[in-house]
Every structure is written in C-alpha cells, then in structure tokens.
C-alpha cells in the first residue's frame, strides 16, 4: 500500500485582523558572541546577563570551552565566563555562523596547539579567505583556505599592520580587532576596497573593546588601531536582538496593528535599530515609552527606495514588507548579501516570485513590485531570516508553508512560539 509522508513544512498562520501584542525578544546575537569572545580574552571573570541562547551562541560557547574557557550558566540566564590558558588540540564547529568562522580564528592563534575549524556544508560557500590571509600576514600559520582549516596556535601572534578588503563582510575587520589587543604589537587594520558593509557592526566591536578598557583609535576613516594590552573583564546586560525584533514590528505594519518590543535601547550600535525609520518611511509610526518601542500602522505601506548597505541583516524583512506594500520598492547597496547564510537576493527573488510576486534582482539589490500573492511553499535555504520573512508574508497570504522553520534556531529558537502567541493575544 502506498504511504504518503506527512508534510514537514510549517503552515504560516495568517490573519485578517490587526496584530496587537507585546513581544519580548531574546538577546542580541552580535552582542552575545562578541561578549563571549572578549570575556574569554579578559584578565578576570566576566558576568553577562541576558545572553542569547541559540545555535550561533551555543557554537561560540562550545568552541571557547574546547579551548579552555569556563562558561557557567546560572538558571536565571546569566553567564559567568572565566578565562584560562587557551590551548589546543581543539575542534571548532562553526555551523553556519559568520561570527564563529570569522571571529574565532584570530583567538585560536593565541592558543597553544592546533585548532581545527569546520562547519555546515553551506558554510563553505561563505567568504572566509580574507580572514585566514590577514592572519597569515600578521604571523599566523594556518593550513587550508576555507572550511575545514587548521590554525596552528603557538600561544602568541606578532600582529602589526595589515590591509584587508572587507567589501564582502565587516566581520573580516571585527574578527581582527576583537583579539587584536592580545597580539604582541596590537593591530592596525586598513580597509582597501569598495565600501565596507554593515559598519554599525564594526562600531559595536569598537564599543565593546572600549568597555573592556582596550585602546582603539578609529579616527581615520577605514583604519582601526588597537593598542596591545590586557582586556578588562565585562559586567554587562545584553540588549534584545533588534534585527530579530524586526519581523514582529513588521507584523504590526502589515496588519494595521500595534506591536511593542520591551527593552528597546535608547542608544545602541545594533544595525537592527534602523527598522524604526524604515517602517516610518513606509508609512507606519513608532514611539518609545518606558514600556519599549511600539510600532503602529494603518496596514497601508508605501513603496520605498532604500540603501540597506549598513543594515543588510534587515533586508529579508524589508523585502517581505515591500512585497506587501501599495507601490514598488527598490532596495540597494546589499550585493554582500550573496555571501550571507544563502544568496539572499536570489532566494528572495525566487521565493516571492514563487508565490506570484514580481521581484527582480539587480546588481546590488532587489526591485520589488507588489502583486496579489497566492498560497505555496516558501523555501528557507537554511537561512533563519528567510524563514521569518516567509512567516511575515504568510500573515497576509493564507496558505504559505515555510519548508524549514527550525532554521530560526540559528538566532531565535523561540520564533514559532513568539509568533503564535503574538497572534493568540491579538484575537
Ligand atoms: O559582526 C556581526 O555580528 C555581524 C555583521 C554583519 O555581517 P556582514 O558584514 O557580513 O554583513 C551582519 O550582517 C551579521 O548578521 C552579524
Ligand atoms: C548575516 C547573518 O549572520 P552571520 O552572523 O552568520 O553572518 C545574519 O544573521 O543575518
């Protein structure tokens, strides 16, 4: 007898009414993984409150533990990180995490012994050679030019001046800066190439290093100088992840509702903060109170022409919003998204068009003309932000099935619970 296998895809919930909810979003991936790394290099134990627990941060923590760092997790969610001598042999699983594959090799040069790096098959397609070559220029011995590769740590790195082409990822620069104070000569990183994407993420790196007492000179554009020295231990709260908050705020925007995210920081280096102004440019309104950031909308969104170079992480959410807007949109400045978890420009074009949309890739972005969309399968390509973009479109288009919603575990394992309870409280 023929058997039909159950469809493992996730039926994205849709709603005709406005979404009205308060959604508490877990900690920032970018802050959590930087805090872990800086704490691992510090001269004493650090306390990190409210860290993100997700695949990317678990991989970072596991890698640091295998290198000799102690990370104790208290039940209320606080991490206590106690540095120790960094040592190999160790094995680092990068998964699909850019922060692990591009931040940890520099730290691994400071370990005594070999450190082997590997990751998901799809991680092998993400740009990485710049990280390895820049470390070689600073004195490291590394075998391999991409995943898998091995850092032959000697417990020290000379450091000094290095020129880097970071036009494909800001993480090439952040990775060198984060460990740079522990290099014998510190590090001077100069960018040579077309514009660096995601600059707020480099500001976040500099900010965190300064919080650890490291001297960083970023007065010259596209040049960073990290003085050699010790890193002080951290005592910090992790902000909510504002890029992960974006699809929830966008849910208010596309349904004519109102969503509040508690704990929205007054001042932040997170690129995701830009979602406020993007939603405002599309016709929604936002205001901040002691309760958090609230986005309210009539449900009618205008098309926009936006350069997302600094905030590329938001592109899948913004593309989904644009597909549901009243007029066409152009998203520019995000050619580097071809090297994210998947080629996000190709994936967004393919998936929105698969539901009847009209999206065209340009050299550095997307041109999106809203069309009436129909039910269908939405493929994620192992990309957490493709999954949440599919959920957002599904809110307004009944019958969208997201093929692998579990990929949201990369940065937000609780996504489906938060999404469905946002809808439950709205009914
Ligand atoms: O340093 C970081 O934490 C990040 C930097 C950015 O990478 P790119 O510069 O490669 O875009 C961003 O997109 C990524 O999600 C996180
Ligand atoms: C690009 C992203 O991640 P990563 O840190 O793996 O580069 C992202 O989260 O959108």
From TrEMBL:
<dbReference type="InterPro" id="IPR013792">
    <property type="entry name" value="RNA3'P_cycl/enolpyr_Trfase_a/b"/>
</dbReference>
<dbReference type="GO" id="GO:0003866">
    <property type="term" value="F:3-phosphoshikimate 1-carboxyvinyltransferase activity"/>
</dbReference>
<feature type="binding site">
    <location>
        <position position="126"/>
    </location>
    <ligand>
        <name>phosphoenolpyruvate</name>
    </ligand>
</feature>
<dbReference type="InterPro" id="IPR023193">
    <property type="entry name" value="EPSP_synthase_CS"/>
</dbReference>
<keyword id="KW-0028">Amino-acid biosynthesis</keyword>
<protein>
    <recommendedName>
        <fullName>3-phosphoshikimate 1-carboxyvinyltransferase</fullName>
        <ecNumber>2.5.1.19</ecNumber>
    </recommendedName>
</protein>
<feature type="binding site">
    <location>
        <position position="171"/>
    </location>
    <ligand>
        <name>phosphoenolpyruvate</name>
    </ligand>
</feature>
<feature type="active site" description="Proton acceptor">
    <location>
        <position position="313"/>
    </location>
</feature>
<keyword id="KW-0808">Transferase</keyword>
<feature type="binding site">
    <location>
        <position position="29"/>
    </location>
    <ligand>
        <name>3-phosphoshikimate</name>
    </ligand>
</feature>
<dbReference type="InterPro" id="IPR006264">
    <property type="entry name" value="EPSP_synthase"/>
</dbReference>
<keyword id="KW-0057">Aromatic amino acid biosynthesis</keyword>
<feature type="binding site">
    <location>
        <position position="171"/>
    </location>
    <ligand>
        <name>3-phosphoshikimate</name>
    </ligand>
</feature>
<feature type="domain" description="Enolpyruvate transferase">
    <location>
        <begin position="16"/>
        <end position="417"/>
    </location>
</feature>
<feature type="binding site">
    <location>
        <position position="344"/>
    </location>
    <ligand>
        <name>phosphoenolpyruvate</name>
    </ligand>
</feature>
<feature type="binding site">
    <location>
        <position position="98"/>
    </location>
    <ligand>
        <name>phosphoenolpyruvate</name>
    </ligand>
</feature>
<feature type="binding site">
    <location>
        <position position="340"/>
    </location>
    <ligand>
        <name>3-phosphoshikimate</name>
    </ligand>
</feature>
<feature type="binding site">
    <location>
        <position position="30"/>
    </location>
    <ligand>
        <name>3-phosphoshikimate</name>
    </ligand>
</feature>
<feature type="binding site">
    <location>
        <position position="34"/>
    </location>
    <ligand>
        <name>3-phosphoshikimate</name>
    </ligand>
</feature>
<dbReference type="Pfam" id="PF00275">
    <property type="entry name" value="EPSP_synthase"/>
</dbReference>
<comment type="similarity">
    <text>Belongs to the EPSP synthase family.</text>
</comment>
<feature type="binding site">
    <location>
        <position position="169"/>
    </location>
    <ligand>
        <name>3-phosphoshikimate</name>
    </ligand>
</feature>
<feature type="binding site">
    <location>
        <position position="170"/>
    </location>
    <ligand>
        <name>3-phosphoshikimate</name>
    </ligand>
</feature>
<dbReference type="InterPro" id="IPR036968">
    <property type="entry name" value="Enolpyruvate_Tfrase_sf"/>
</dbReference>
<comment type="pathway">
    <text>Metabolic intermediate biosynthesis; chorismate biosynthesis; chorismate from D-erythrose 4-phosphate and phosphoenolpyruvate: step 6/7.</text>
</comment>
<comment type="subunit">
    <text>Monomer.</text>
</comment>
<feature type="binding site">
    <location>
        <position position="313"/>
    </location>
    <ligand>
        <name>3-phosphoshikimate</name>
    </ligand>
</feature>
<comment type="function">
    <text>Catalyzes the transfer of the enolpyruvyl moiety of phosphoenolpyruvate (PEP) to the 5-hydroxyl of shikimate-3-phosphate (S3P) to produce enolpyruvyl shikimate-3-phosphate and inorganic phosphate.</text>
</comment>
<keyword id="KW-0963">Cytoplasm</keyword>
<feature type="region of interest" description="Disordered">
    <location>
        <begin position="1"/>
        <end position="26"/>
    </location>
</feature>
<feature type="binding site">
    <location>
        <position position="198"/>
    </location>
    <ligand>
        <name>3-phosphoshikimate</name>
    </ligand>
</feature>
<feature type="binding site">
    <location>
        <position position="385"/>
    </location>
    <ligand>
        <name>phosphoenolpyruvate</name>
    </ligand>
</feature>
<dbReference type="InterPro" id="IPR001986">
    <property type="entry name" value="Enolpyruvate_Tfrase_dom"/>
</dbReference>
<feature type="binding site">
    <location>
        <position position="29"/>
    </location>
    <ligand>
        <name>phosphoenolpyruvate</name>
    </ligand>
</feature>
<feature type="binding site">
    <location>
        <position position="410"/>
    </location>
    <ligand>
        <name>phosphoenolpyruvate</name>
    </ligand>
</feature>
């Amino acid at each position: 007898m023929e058997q039909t296998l159950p469809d493992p895809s996730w039926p994205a919930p849709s709603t005709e009414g406005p979404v009205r909810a308060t959604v508490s979003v877990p900690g920032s991936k970018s802050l959590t993984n930087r805090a872990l790394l800086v704490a691992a290099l510090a001269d004493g134990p650090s306390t990190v409150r409210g860290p993100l627990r997700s695949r990317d941060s678990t991989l970072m923590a596991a890698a640091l533990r295998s290198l000799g760092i102690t990370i104790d997790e208290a039940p209320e969610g606080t991490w206590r990180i106690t540095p120790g001598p960094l040592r190999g042999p160790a094995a680092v699983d990068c998964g699909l995490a850019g922060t692990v594959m591009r931040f940890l090799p520099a730290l691994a040069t400071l370990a005594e012994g070999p450190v082997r790096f590997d990751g998901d098959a799809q991680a092998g397609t993400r740009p990485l050679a710049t990280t390895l070559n820049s470390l070689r220029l600073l004195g490291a011995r590394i075998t391999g030019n991409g995943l898998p590769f091995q850092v032959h740590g000697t417990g020290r790195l000379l450091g000094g001046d290095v020129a880097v082409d970071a036009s494909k990822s800001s993480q090439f620069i952040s990775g060198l800066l984060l460990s740079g104070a522990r290099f014998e000569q510190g590090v001077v990183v100069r960018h040579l190439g077309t514009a660096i994407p995601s600059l707020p993420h480099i500001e976040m790196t500099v900010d965190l290093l300064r919080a650890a007492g490291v001297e960083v000179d970023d007065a010259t554009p596209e040049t960073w100088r990290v003085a050699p020295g010790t890193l002080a231990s951290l005592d910090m709260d992790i902000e909510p992840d504002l890029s992960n908050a974006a699809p929830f705020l966008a849910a208010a925007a596309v349904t004519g509702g109102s969503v509040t995210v508690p704990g929205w920081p007054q001042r932040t280096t997170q690129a995701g903060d830009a979602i406020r102004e993007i939603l405002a440019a599309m016709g929604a309104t936002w205001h901040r109170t002691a309760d958090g950031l609230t986005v309210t909308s009539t449900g009618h969104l205008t098309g926009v022409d936006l350069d997302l170079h600094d905030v590329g992480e938001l592109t899948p959410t913004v593309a989904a919003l644009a597909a549901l807007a009243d007029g066409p949109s152009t998203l520019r400045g995000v050619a580097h998204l071809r090297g994210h978890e998947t080629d996000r420009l190709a994936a967004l074009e393919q998936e929105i068009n698969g539901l009847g949309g009209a999206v065209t890739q340009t050299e550095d972005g997307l041109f999106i003309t809203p069309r009436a969309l129909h039910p269908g399968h939405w493929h994620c390509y192992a990309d957490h932000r493709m999954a949440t973009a599919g959920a957002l479109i599904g809110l307004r288009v009944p019958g969208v099935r997201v093929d692998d919603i579990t990929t949201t575990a990369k940065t937000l394992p609780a996504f489906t619970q938060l999404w469905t309870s946002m809808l439950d409280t709205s009914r």
